[in-house]
Every structure is written in C-alpha cells, then in structure tokens.
Write a structure and sequence with these properties.
The complex is a heterodimer of chains A (116) and B (112). With 116 residues, chain A is mostly beta strands. Helices cover 3% and strands 52% of the residues of chain A. Chain A contains one helix and eleven strands; from the N terminus they run βββββββββαββ. Chain B has 112 residues and is an all-beta fold. In chain B, strands 2, 4, 5, 9, 10 and 11 form a six-stranded mixed beta sheet that branches. Chain B starts with a strand and ends with a strand. The chains are: A mainly beta (116), B mainly beta (112).
Chain lengths: 116, 112
C-alpha cells in the first residue's frame, strides 16, 4: 500500500509569490491534515479536511488555504508569501475523522518551502 | 499552541543505553501518541496510549501515562545508532473535532 505522497518535495519562492502544495493520502483514507513545522514554533496545525469539507482550522492568516477533492487528494495554497512562511509543510492522512476516532496519523515526507 | 512539552529538549547517550523522554500536557486527553522524525523527514507513529491505560509496550519501546500528573514517558531500551531522531508526543483531547497537537520534541542522539 503506497504511503502519503507530497509534491513537490522542495521548492524555492520569493516574497509575494504564491505556492500550491499537493498531498495524496493513503488509499481509502478520507481525512487529510496539514501541519507547518519550523525550528522555532515546532509543529503547528493548519487545517483538516474530511470528505471535501474543512472540519478544523488552525490559527493561521487567511493567506493559508486548502481544499480536498472527491478522491481525497488535498492541496494547500499560500498566497503573498512572506519570509516567515519558510518551513516544512507536512500532510497526514487517516481513515476516519481525526485522532479522536482512529488514533494515528500517517505522514508524508513533507514539502520544504524556502522563501527568499 | 503546544499542548505537550517534551523534556529534555536534547539527549545524547551511548549505544546500548536506555533513553527516557518525558512529556507533560495541560488538558484532559482521549489519547497520547508518540512519533519519531528522522532529520527533515516525515513523522512516523510509534505508539498510542489511551487515557484509561497506564502502560504500553511495543518492541523496545515502553510508554507510561499518568493522567493525574498529566504526563507521559517514552523509554527506548538498548538504544541503537538508528534510533537517532526527534521524538514528539501528541495529544488528542475529548473535545469534538480538535486536531492532534504536538509538542516541540526531544532530539535524541545515540552514539555508536
């Protein structure tokens, strides 16, 4: 069974640009969560999608958005990039509706974004 | 905001020794999970312990949970160089659809 796939793995952007990151969950998983990881703040929750609906959103500005498609694949978008958006963006999938119901999250390898 | 806080932030031991990492959290939980992350990679789930459990084992891993102290510990026995990684605790609360909240992790270095 293929794991969680994130693309691209690495990307470099300049301030003011926008970026779209993609996540393909494990086959059969309907929940996708996104996290931002930085050395200073650690792992910060961005949002969670289940069956194409955003069920939860973290404390991030509106420049951060996401969506989920009918095949459970998810994308997140960051507009008007700032230097502080440089981070490892991690996607995680689970079968059911989050850690309360099913427990563990399965993570992808992440997309490392550098903003210059 | 972080729910779990790991202690110590960094730990360096010799191969064959045991490594103990601690996690403290603030609110009531449904379950607590431990994950491992090799440098710059994704997180890998290690073990989940529910709030009504006190101890759980998986191979060389032993996790304890003390809900009265709101703390958990992860013990890795007979450490190997391959155990070098960052270890995170993550908590799931009982409140509706709240997400899994991670601590900042303990960086473990196992020296051969």
């Amino acid at each position: 069974k293929a794991g969680v796939t994130q693309t691209p793995r690495y990307l470099i952007k300049t301030r003011g640009q926008q970026v779209t990151l993609s996540c393909s969950p494990i086959s059969g998983h309907r929940s996708v969560s996104w996290y931002q990881q930085t050395p200073g703040q650690g792992l910060q929750f961005l949002f969670e999608y289940f069956s194409e609906t955003q069920r939860n959103k973290g404390n991030f500005p509106g420049r951060f958005s996401g969506r989920q498609f009918s095949n459970s694949r998810s994308e997140m978008n960051v507009s008007t990039l700032e230097l502080g958006d440089s981070a490892l963006y991690l996607c995680a999938s689970s079968y059911g509706r989050g850690p309360l119901i099913t427990g563990e999250l399965f993570f992808g390898e992440g997309s490392r974004l550098t903003v210059l | 905001s972080q729910q779990g806080e790991e202690d110590p932030q960094a730990l360096s031991i010799q191969e064959g020794e045991n490594a103990t990492m601690n996690c403290s959290y603030k609110t009531s939980i449904n379950n607590l999970q431990w994950y491992r992350q090799n440098s710059g990679r994704g997180l890998v789930h290690l073990i989940l312990i529910r709030s009504n459990e006190r101890e759980k084992h998986s191979g060389r891993l032993r996790v304890t949970l003390d809900t009265s102290k709101k703390s958990s510990s992860l013990l890795i026995t007979a450490s190997r160089a391959a155990d070098t990684a960052s270890y995170f605790c993550a908590t799931a609360t009982n409140s509706g659809n709240t997400p899994l909240v991670f601590g900042k992790g303990t960086r473990l270095s196992v020296i051969a």
